[in-house]
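Homework-ish question, so no full write-ups if that breaks the rules, but can someone show me the predicted structure for this set?
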Amino acid sequence: MFKINENYLKLPGSYLFSDIGRKVNAYAAENPDKKIIRLGIGDVTQPLAPAIINALHDAVEEMGNAAYFHGYAPDLGYEFLRNAIADIDYKNRGCDISADEIFISDGAKSDSGNIQEIFSSDNKIAVCDPVYPVYVDTNVMAGRTGAYDTASETFQGMIYMPCTADNNFAPEIPRETPDIIYLCFPNNPTGAAITKRNLQDWVDYANQAGAVIIYDAAYEAYISETDIPHSIYECEGSRTCAIELRSFSKNAGFTGLRLGFTVVPRELKTGDVSLHSLWARRHGTKYNGAPYIVQRAGEAVYSDKGRQQLKGQVAYYMNNASYIYEGLKSAGYTVSGGVNAPYIWLKTPKGMTSWDFFDHLLHTANVVGTPGSGFGPNGEGYFRLTAFGSYENTVEAVDRIKAL
Amino acid sequence: MFKINENYLKLPGSYLFSDIGRKVNAYAAENPDKKIIRLGIGDVTQPLAPAIINALHDAVEEMGNAAYFHGYAPDLGYEFLRNAIADIDYKNRGCDISADEIFISDGAKSDSGNIQEIFSSDNKIAVCDPVYPVYVDTNVMAGRTGAYDTASETFQGMIYMPCTADNNFAPEIPRETPDIIYLCFPNNPTGAAITKRNLQDWVDYANQAGAVIIYDAAYEAYISETDIPHSIYECEGSRTCAIELRSFSKNAGFTGLRLGFTVVPRELKTGDVSLHSLWARRHGTKYNGAPYIVQRAGEAVYSDKGRQQLKGQVAYYMNNASYIYEGLKSAGYTVSGGVNAPYIWLKTPKGMTSWDFFDHLLHTANVVGTPGSGFGPNGEGYFRLTAFGSYENTVEAVDRIKAL
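A: Not a homework solution, just the prediction itself:
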């Protein structure tokens, strides 16, 4: 008789954003006259930039012509894209990363969920709290934790690193030594950034402890301050301890186009086995490459025109972030984030729980955000708003909240 | 100190098609004047059909317009595509499969590699021999086998079901009872088909043994005979024992576009846990949907124009299959497949090993095929040629082989 993966049964309830979707749909069905503004899920709203649209059309034309048709892509991605990434994201920032250390994928969510597969099931995992749920859930599904403890809302055997107002939403080195450390900066959900000096401390710690840092830099395009690193490879010694995940979703609006990449430096080894070779094997065996047309769209992101157009798109969203931040602050809310990230993290008023405030905002202002508690117990009493709406909707949402 | 997934180290060498690629590239570099014809890897060569190209251009236009822009796709795929599949692939064939039992993905290779994740590590796996390597390798990586035995070229603890000339390349029910059975028909690599009656025997056996059949129907579009089922759901009782994998790669030329789907009927359960709910959780947590534009291209595959154009494309490749089959037969080779599948499976002449014949064909005829032994020990002494080349190249390749 076949047996299921029992680890799946440890996961409580469903995925956070599915829960939110159900609540919002129910409210919308009961109140068809209300205009609901969604600043919840981190999905973009601006259309793809013209340089990207042109690249897509050109690539589609190729696919319709036998002489230029492209079948299976190279396992690790097309060189034209890997070279552009190596040059512009890394060499231009002084990072020593070569094109053959870059693995093209269908997005950072897949990579952040799949990367744990190359590690054994007895590694000790450390995550921030609050945290992007995928890091936790995929390790639970792989059997790297014990049961879920409903009282503490945590999984046994996982190390949680609190990120609270007290530590300025920056995790501290945990007391128990982890084997694998997930870090995401600029952070989802808090919008906090990490300075190069603080990130260097983590790199030094990981090298000393023999730990791997899985560094999710999906939001690096939103960094506005100069002492904030865009890549962990700006830190010394990172090639022996860090894997970096990157996305095209937030800097170029690819949420519906699906493209991302993972960097695994060749020096990252245990004994003589490199994580690079394991990830290459995983990638080649369980994945078959990102679509040619999407990889050409990714290349256009690095073109002169693409970069110029996307600079405007990021500025558009950061203008929203600033409007939310200033508006809520002037209305007496305690807010953070929004300076180097498209997320605003606010303290719920009058000691409301995150879900109470979610319901309150949905019912009175018809605005959808994300309850902080959905990201972990230390998110309780907080709430996330995203800057990815249209400017008009963002202004209207903030004005409605201010009028409450 | 972080620890790697040691199961990866059980895998001998690299992925079959990477090995072939290296050999061919080395020969090409040494012999720049030779025209090499590739009938090895199962990659298509015909451009995407006009109906698909039009759908792609239209969808790209939408992505460049704020009013029609699409961000994150629904977890399980867009309804327009799932409905088209449910109607045309299933209802029209009398199969009881609903749209919400269909999970859209980036292709059958990913699905066939990922599907094992929802099962525990102590399930007993049965595969055909020869076999598509992904089924075996992904179970090895997940720890469901023992070590690789170099003498027998098999993994300990895995059940191999020989498919040889003696049984007409059809597996027999194994002596040891498996929990999970991988079947692929029409078969890759042998090109053999299974009758509805024989498939019904497998379904009956699985229901009786409490086993799950993972049925890879990636090549169903090539079926030309009437007693061959296009889906396992044509068999009675399959809803309680079978998962089906389908691809857009071979019927519609999507190898470089990436689209597929997996069907998990809601009745497939152990206790009160349905595999449908586990796969939905896996899909929602470790994947973020196929690109909107590619799902629109998939929809075009089911349009009247699309279906008509693709019928022509399949006929084009099957004409190649027939040319290879007849040509080699007339030259004295022992051949099979090629009637309900785009693969021709031939016995190597004069007792040559599969790799010897590979080298011989590459060096003397400049034709690339796939060594049968790369698919498993019972593939030794066989060789796979694909019908996916251009007609001109196929004719030239066969004529060169005949002239040897």
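Now go work out the reasoning yourself. Hint: The mean pLDDT of chain B is 96.
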